Amino acid sequence: MRRWTEALVVFVPCLVELVCTIFLVFLGCGSTLNWPQEETSPTVLTISLSFGFLYAFLGNISTLVSGGFFNPAITAALATIKTIPIKRAVCLIFAQLTGAVIGAGLLYFVVPDDNREYLGVTRVRSVSCLTGCGVEVLMTAALTLTVLLTSDGGQRTIDSSACMVIGTAVSVCHLFGYPISGCGINPVRSFGPAVIMNIWKNHWVYWVGPIIGAQLAAAIHHLINNFPVKTADELEVRGRQLKDKMEMPSFGLNISEHHPPIPTQVTTQGDSPSELATFL
């Protein structure tokens, strides 16, 4: 019975992460597709808003069960700082990767051949691969810090407003990064379409960048939480304590400075034998 309970505790969050990742890739990558027969086509603004709203509502429906991350880079970072067990992190990442492939596969079969193009595959545009990787590092670090600082130790989102903040961060990252690197910031968002379309050019950028960025953000968050002084009031109190300690007088007095030396010999000149006997 205990084994079944432990398996259920791991299985349910993995199932939630799988379903959320399916929606993320299916709807998110679908928002990037062009429809030539339509008068309107997706823009950076519409794509940014689509991904932002996706993260917001998917976080709301999954936060109490799995933490609502559906991002292997963030999941690995949480395992590094021991917020979640390594075994659970491995299971969650496997579910996320599986969901990404399923979501991209569903999108491939739903969209007509003329409209598939790259199926939302992330590509480095007009910059070098190293520059694109650097952009992914910075954007993923910003997203991960937002997730950690608006959640209960990185384990679950506190409330709905926190999900909106995370969604806003995703939108801002897309507004800046989409014209540069396609704004991966989540390896599964790039992995699913790459598997279905078999396009792997510069794919390493969307793993190395987000993983480094998430690890960097997790280290910063860990340092902030374990820093001796966290607020201005605490800093002022510590400063006063240190000042009082430095001004405190020393109690290690030198006896020779305050007391005359103790005589080691008794002068007997002029003393009678009876007086010496009395003294001794």
Automatic annotation (TrEMBL):
Keywords: Membrane, Transmembrane, Transmembrane helix, Transport. It is found in: Membrane. GO terms for molecular function: water channel activity. Its main location: membrane. SUPFAM superfamilies: Aquaporin-like. It is a multi-pass membrane protein. The chain crosses the membrane at residues 7-33, 53-78, 90-111, 123-149, 161-180, 204-224. GO terms for cellular component: plasma membrane. InterPro entries: Aquaporin-like (IPR023271), Aquaporin_transptr (IPR034294), MIP (IPR000425). Belongs to the MIP/aquaporin (TC 1.A.8) family. PANTHER family: AQUAPORIN (PTHR19139:SF284), AQUAPORIN TRANSPORTER (PTHR19139). This is Aquaporin-4.
